[in-house]
């Protein structure tokens, strides 16, 4: 079997000279998967003659080496000149791991093909090396950036990424982030269309620097207060808000209908209780028991709906769903 016909390969501790030789066989392939404990960013950058649509590089991995020659279920395993090679069906994902970093880029090729999405994961202990590599993507258009499980001190090095400045969507997940870090993060991401946060805490005061965010998603362990809710002006807001109640949503709707200028298009929240949700709001309440298609494409089960008209004539709907889910949309 010719290596040039495979769509992915895995190399273990391969010398640089051999690495270049194998790369030449794969320069037009869809997927390249490397595993080389000594592979450095500088060496990778020298391989600019490659043009795969997907590349995965793993350094210091904990992998089980596949040495069997067989074909089954679309997976082709070959062994050539002592090099273990795994050929896979072509996925749309670009993954790159340096040290304990992981980077995923959908529908991309290194150097030549525009990147559409990047995912980083793990505790970024070799951040400088990763940043150096990603700087080679200056000028590309990135639609989504996801940062998983980072610690803030290492993440601080990411804040000057040229990539971040052009990303349309930012998603952050981390257990070591503290309230004091959030203003810095939100200022950095404040001009982006979509920001998704997964934190254990959320500083109310920090939201002032995030008002340019169009879509905000707050997940899991976040405590979203009434003060933060009333201070926001997002087009799209989704949150797991165990501390909020129907009265808090009621206050938000009252502010919305009495003070024109809000950008809200869709709000989705799970609240602690629904008591007082519709109290004193003008409009006719409808009792329903049906599924409704929302503007974001999600189908939700609604059993109570109230429609009111704001001062500027905009119709706003407040819906009560199952499991204390509340939807506010215009």
The biggest beta sheet is recorded as: 15 strands, mixed
Number of helices: 8
For the secondary structure, the number of strands is 18
Radius of gyration from the alpha-carbon trace, in angstroms: 25 Å
Q: Could you tell me the mean pLDDT?
A: 58
Mass-distribution shape: globular
Query: Structural class given helices, strands, pairing?
Result: alpha/beta
Order of H and E elements: HEHEEEEEEEHEHHEHEEHEHEEEEE
Strand content: 25-35%
Poorly predicted spans: 1-19, 26-119, 121-142
Strand order of the largest sheet: 1-2-6-7-8-9-10-11-12-13-14-18-17-16-15
Q: Can you describe this structure?
A:
The chain is α/β, with parallel strands linked by helices. Among the domains are: 90 residues, no CATH class; 131 residues. The chain has eight helices and 18 strands. The protein has a 15-stranded mixed β-sheet, with helices on one face. It has a three-stranded antiparallel β-sheet with strand order 3-4-5, with no helix packed on it. The N terminus is likely disordered.
TL;DR?
Helix content is 18%, strand content 30%. By secondary structure, the protein is an alpha/beta fold.
Task: Sum up the structure in keywords.
330 residues, alpha/beta, 15-stranded mixed β-sheet, three-stranded antiparallel β-sheet, 8 helices, globular, disordered N terminus
Topology:
Blueprint: H1 16-25, E1 31-35, H2 41-45, E2 54-58, E3 70-72, E4 75-80, E5 83-87, E6 93-96, E7 102-106, E8 117-121, H3 127-134, E9 144-148, H4 152-155, H5 162-166, E10 169-173, H6 182-189, E11 194-198, E12 215-218, H7 226-231, E13 236-240, H8 246-258, E14 266-270, E15 284-293, E16 299-309, E17 315-321, E18 325-329
Parallel strand pairs: 1-2, 2-6, 8-9, 9-10, 10-11, 11-12, 12-13, 13-14
Antiparallel strand pairs: 3-4, 4-5, 6-7, 7-8, 14-18, 15-16, 16-17, 17-18
